[in-house]
Design a protein that fits this description.
Layout (H helix, E strand, L loop, with lengths): L4 E3 L2 E4 L4 E6 L2 H4 L5 E7 L6 E7 L4 E3 L7 E6 L4 E6 L8 E8 L14 E2 L3 E6 L1
Parallel strand pairs: 2-11
Antiparallel strand pairs: 1-3, 3-8, 4-5, 4-9, 5-6, 7-8, 9-10, 9-11
């Protein structure tokens, strides 16, 4: 299915915005039960599902980012995005682009994704 490659991470001050991009999603995006998402992890802590988008366009978000983050996909460029606004220091983490095509679990942030990118660091300072 190809390699997922994230970009767009960086350092911002609290209240700022970043947009993460994920290329290489074409092998997943058009699968019948495609679920694409973003998961974040702070080293030494549990992974946290952030947002998902299903094949039909349905999106879901973790409560911690609802209203601040927006997941979207561009089928013309086969790119997955995560627009992050009103960033807070607790959003600091490595963000991973993820995909699943099995459909065995609901397309929600809690899904155990099968495919992962290498991650991109997001750092938010107070």
């Amino acid at each position: 299915q190809g390699q997922l490659v994230e970009s767009g991470g960086g350092s911002v001050q609290a209240g700022g915005s970043l947009r993460l991009s994920c290329g290489g999603a074409s092998g997943y995006m058009y699968q019948t039960k495609a679920c694409l998402g973003w998961v974040r992890q702070v080293p030494g802590q549990e992974r946290e599902g952030v947002a998902t988008i299903y094949k039909d366009g349905t999106t879901t978000y973790a409560d911690s980012v609802l209203g601040r983050f927006t997941i979207s996909e561009d089928t013309a460029t086969n790119t997955l995005y995560l627009q992050m606004n009103s960033l807070q220091p607790e959003d600091t983490a490595i963000y991973y682009c993820t995909a699943d095509i099995n459909g065995w679990e609901p397309c929600r942030p809690e899904l155990r994704f099968a495919y992962w990118g290498q991650g991109t660091q997001v750092t938010v300072s107070a």
